[in-house]
Amino acid sequence: MAQADDMTETGNGTAEERRAGSRVRSVVDRWRRDPGIWRRGTVVSVSALLLALLMVLHRHIPNDIGNTGSLIETFLPWFGLFVPVLAGLALLRRSATALIAVLVPAIVWANLFGGLVTDKNGPGGDLTVVTHNVNADNPDPEGTARAVAGSGADVLALVELKPGMVPVYEAALADAYPHHSVRGTVGVWSRYPLGDSRPVDIRMGWTRAMRTTVAAPDGPVAVYVAHLPSVRVKLKAGFTANQRDRSADQLGQAIAQEPERRVILLGDLNGTMNDRSLNAVTSQLRSTQGAAGDGMGFSWPAAFPMARIDQILVRGVEPVASWSLPRTDSDHLPIAARVTF
């Protein structure tokens, strides 16, 4: 029995496919005959171009008023969400001009962040490092310690250590890490011997940064651990990051004077690699996430990560993989990296 025409299949495809193609041609024909297709969508077009300019020129946005530039740079990757919104508005307005304009911020965003969305993790590595802001008010420090120890890290950095909880972390990590050093609210646990451990003054009035030398099998590496001051977004004051910025400059000076060729910085910098206020640090070191990461690697807040303010930065070693670890009872995600000497 012959089938209905809409169920037949020919060399040109099914009837359903032909109908879909016909609908597309119909829309294109209507747009082609529409005299306003190039005149409509001015607001969308201008908005798209302004978005592109903001992303291209973000380093020229002044910090004089409320550290606006740093605030924008902290969440710069999220500005890409405006691209599909503008594209939808361009389609709604049936504006060819706006659609073309939307391509500009799309290309800019892809140029800035497209390389981060892919998985660049590679095999191998001589040293695995993990850093975690454990949260001073963590309700389960022992469980958090076991979770990060389970990552298999050779070197583990913990920041925001509450003094009364340090013995809990020491006991929970003792079997996996025979060597450790704690200075103030930051600490390093290592499978390999540590030497020349000392605090680093970042002008906070108490110790929130340190350095140590890890005697790794393939050679010594200077490991810095830092927890830079917190930042806040306030209605009247804007992005209050001045103390963070001063501490970053001081940390950058300490790293610049480091005699070891191999350097790894671990910790919560309360800023992203895009934030120009961290330039004293980021200009000297590479981000493992940027070089060899899996996706954006956002680490905060743990419930819905929106920014990578926890960092693993290196000099004199080659990143081969970088990733985020599962959530603990902290408000930050732990992050990890493998490097080769």
Automatic annotation (TrEMBL):
Q: Which domain of life is it from?
A: Bacteria
Keyword Amino-acid biosynthesis listed: no
Q: What is this protein called?
A: Endonuclease/exonuclease/phosphatase domain-containing protein
Q: Name the InterPro entries on file.
A: Endo/exonu/phosph_ase_sf (IPR036691), Endo/exonuclease/phosphatase (IPR005135)
UniProt GO molecular function? catalytic activity
What Pfam families does this protein map onto? Answer: Exo_endo_phos
UniProt region (Disordered), positions on chain: 1-21
* Record key words, sorted: Membrane, Transmembrane, Transmembrane helix
The record's section on SUPFAM superfamilies has: DNase I-like
Q: Which residues form the Endonuclease/exonuclease/phosphatase domain?
A: 130-332
Q: Which residues cross the membrane?
A: 37-55, 75-92, 99-117
